[in-house]
Amino acid sequence: MSVRVRFAPSPTGPLHMGGVRTALFNYLFARKHDGVMILRIEDTDQGRFVPGAEEYIMESLEWCGIYIDEGIREGGAYGPYRQSDRKHLYKQYADELLENGWAYYAFDSAEDLESMRKDFESRKETFSYDNQNRKILRNSLTLPENEVNRLLTSGENYVIRFKMPENEEIVMFDLIRGEVRVNTNTLDDKVLFKSDGMPTYHLANVVDDHLMEITHVIRGEEWLPSMPLHVMLYRAFGWTVTMPEFAHLPLILKPSGNGKLSKRDGDKLGFPVFPINWNNPETGEVYSGYREAGYFNDAFVNILALLGWNDGTDKEIYTMEELVDAFSLERVGTSGSRFDPDKAKWFNHQYMLMKSDEEIAELFINAEGTRLKAQGKAEGAEPAPGLTWGHKAQVMDMEWEKVVKIISLVKERAEFVKDLWSQAWFFFEAPVSYDETTIKKRWTPEIPSILELITSLLTPYLSPEPCVLSPEPCAPGSSPGQALSPQDYETLIKGHIAANNLNMGQVMNILRLCLVGSPMGPGVFDIMALLGPDEVVARIERAVGAIVP
Ligand code: GLU
User: Fold this and answer.
1) Which atom of ligand 1 lies closest to the CA of 230?
2) Homologous superfamily of 4-81+251-341 in CATH?
3) Does domain 84-249 have CATH number 3.90.800.10?
4) For a pLDDT cut of 90, what percent of the chain falls above it?
């Protein structure tokens, strides 16, 4: 029998990252077994429906590369895939249970139940509508048949409840937890159907899993308490032979390890709990998502995969294909998995390093934090075929190879593309201020003359017409000076330092101060090679003029 799994979110708001992990594990399991991945929207609780949530769910899954085989958008032979569109289906199943004695009508008003609850509380007991208390409540088990019929025909509000057997041991099997046993006396008689014509989650969920021929129910641990009722429903319907197998995934815990990471934690703890930004249509508030926070989608998927699962080795970085290959429910743990936001950033950093410099350069150019001037967009210039000037990669066309090189030098210093500008800005703009601490520590009276000698070393390489890298493009025929490699600069400058018995540390720190303005950035000679001799000399001269120790 081929594997059919479903992700069955309720469109009551944005999808929590725990929900995405549930979807991911379903997806990995489906792919691994050449099965089918279904997206079923469980919107029977109309009161909690939130506009936009369905689209949000689909966009989130798409961003993660979790593809749906059957769903509200994709269609399929077992549709419709939205429970409100299947409304007409459920009543007959509730009726069937009424007929075969597995369910009953209950007419208790909300006020009756509330006063019952209070009564129990006053005796320090907890009320539940269970196989004992149902005997003293207003339902079709206690009322005479003609009274029940009268209430039903008079339009009285009712619900249909499941009739949990008395004192029976339910023995179940969970693929992650093994055998689970529950005595029916600890369970209540859940509502299956309401007089508004809508089924509750329990009835709709089980009926749909059956009709959609779901083979494995993989869902969060918060649904484990529902498993006995669901197993009993399969029994009540006579569907035990085709009952799906169950697997309840462990909780994702707050970084402190104290309690479940909840939707309400979003932003409060300093990291997103949603895959993508969510704009609350009611309040206008924006809740941040991993996508907008700068996470790569493959890094995010990798982070989620390791929340509760590992392949038994130390391997931490997985592509989606590798995950499909390695995944098994047997290796999903039972205890809650603490979410570590620093580790999440580490993952993103690893993905940044793994991606090609070209790919990151393209993202860098288009990133919000990047303030590249419209270099290359000379007056009257035409964009390359197929591109427009609005495309920043094209705007940077002239310097593209340089940008790629710059990225190769700085990407190990940032966790997110949006932070690259703060590591690379000095390649594009000259510094306008200089670090006081370095000045105090290193700027001695002989520094200006030392720098003058160094700039004179570069004189032979300057272009005839001075041209700086920023802010305007170079005039035709000119260049930012003759291209020298980092090694060329090293030989020149280190040779000079050695020959003149200068303090290597001091001179190198001062050169960095002139070029970058602060003690940061990759190797000084790498920076020089990218700036070119014209810009190097210009920056040194500007610094000498500006720095008054
Ligand atoms: N609609 C439920 C939810 O929102 C689905 C639970 C299940 O997978 O059975 O999570």
Assistant:
1) 9
2) HUPs (3.40.50.620)
3) yes
4) 79
